[in-house]
Amino acid sequence: MVNLLISSPQTNVFVLLFWALAAVVVFIFVSAIFVQRKKGKHLAEELKELDKIKQNNTEYEFVLKAMKIAVWRYDARDQSFAYENDFREGMNNYVISDNEKFQDTLSAINPADKERVNKSFSDILEGRTDFYHEEYRVDPKVGASYWEDSFATIVERDENGKPLKIVGTSQRIDERKEMESSLVTARNKAEESDRLKTAFLANMGHEIRTPLNAIVGFADLLPVVESEEDRNQLIQEIQNNNHKLLRIIDGLVSMAKIEAGAKSLLMAKVDVNNMLQQMVDTYQPTTMLAIMTECPLEELPIQTDREKLFEILDNLVQNAVKFTEAGSVTLGYDVLGDRLRIWVKDTGKGIPEADQERIFERFVKLDEYVPGTGLGLSVAKSHALSLNGSIGVESKVGEGSTFWVELPLS
Questions:
Q1: Cα within 13 Å of Cα(54), Cβ side
Q2: Is 177 exposed, middle or buried (0-12, 13-18, 19+ CB in 10 A)?
Q3: What average pLDDT does the segment 66-90 reach?
Q4: Given the DSSP bridges, would you call strands 267-271 and 290-294 parallel, antiparallel or unpaired?
Q5: Do 175 and 181 contact (CB within 8 A), yes or no?
Q6: Which residue, 86, 61, 58, 53, is CA-closest to 71?
Q7: Cβ neighbours, 10 Å, residue 317
Q8: In this predicted model, what pLDDT tens digit does every residue of 18-40 receive, in sequence order?
Q9: For residue 32, what are the CA distances in angstroms to 20, 25, 26?
C-alpha cells in the first residue's frame, strides 16, 4: 500500500509536463483575449476617427454649398490645376479641367483683368507673397461674362521654402458687383442732386426777384405817366411779369405736392383740341413766334385729370417758347392704338443727345443764362407717370425739338 502512494520518477515527470503544458495553454488563451481586446479597442478608435473625418467632410461640403464656393488646388511641380468641389451658382461657369496649365486658365479671364491676375498669381507661385486675392471677369466659352472673386494660399513648401502646393477658392459675385454699381450710381446721383439743389436755391432768389422788381417798378411809374399808350404798355408789362411770377410759384407748389406724395387724381372728360387751342391763346400774345395746332380730328375727348394734363402741356409749351428765338411752335397729337401721343414741336436750338434724359430731372438747367427754375420738365414727367403715361423728347442740335407725352385713351 505504501508503495502505491509513493510516486515513481516517471510519474513526477509526467505531472510536471502536464502542468507546464496547461500553463502554456492558459497563457496563450489569455494573451489571445488581450490581443483581441486591444485590436477591438484600436478598431473602435479608428472607426470613431473615420466617422469624425466623415462628419467634418459633411460639414465642410455644407459650408461650401452655403457659400456657393468652388475649391481648387494647384501643384507647382507639374504646374497644373485640379478642382475638388464646385458649388458655384449660375449657369455656364468656367471649370478648370484636371491638369490644366495656368496659362490656359488665363485665356478665360477678361483681357482687362488678365495682366493683373497673372502678376498676382505669379507672386504667390514664386513665394513673393503668401496670399492671393483677385476679383476679375470671366469670359466662358458658353454664356455671358460674369464676375468672380478668388482667394488662395500656400499649403506646402519644399526645403527651400518654395511653394509646392496652393489651395484656393472661387466664388461668383455678380449680385455684389451689381449692388456696388447701383450704390456708386446712387451716390453720384445724390451728389449731383445736392449740387443742383444748391444751384437752384441760389438761382431762385434771382428768378423771383426779376419779375417782382418789374411789377413794383412799373406800378410805381403808373401814377406819373400821362400818355394812355404808355400806361397800357406798362400795364401789359406788369401783367406779363405777373404771369411769370405765378408760373414760378406754381412750379414750386407742384414740386412740393409731388415731394409730399400727393397722388390723388380727379378724372374728367377733356377735349384735347380745346386744351391745345387754350395753350395757343395763352402764349401767342406773349411772343413773336408763330404758335399753332395740328389736330387730325375735329374733337378728341379723353378721360384724364384736367389739371395735371394742363400743367404738363403748359410746361412743354413754356419750355418750347423759352428756347426758340425764331420760327414756330406747333402743338398736335397722334392716336397710337389705345394710346394718345400729344407733342409740342419747336424750331429752337435743339438738345444734345447726352442731355436728353437728364433734362427731366429736378433743378437741371442746360443754359444758366435762360430764365427758369429747372422744375418744369420734372413736374411734367411726374404728372405723366401719375396718369399712367410716359414722356420724352426727340431733338437734334440746331434743328429744334419735339417733346411728347403719351397717355392712355381711356
A1: 6
A2: middle
A3: 81
A4: unpaired
A5: no
A6: 86
A7: 21
A8: 676 666 666 665 565 555 555 44
A9: 18, 10, 10
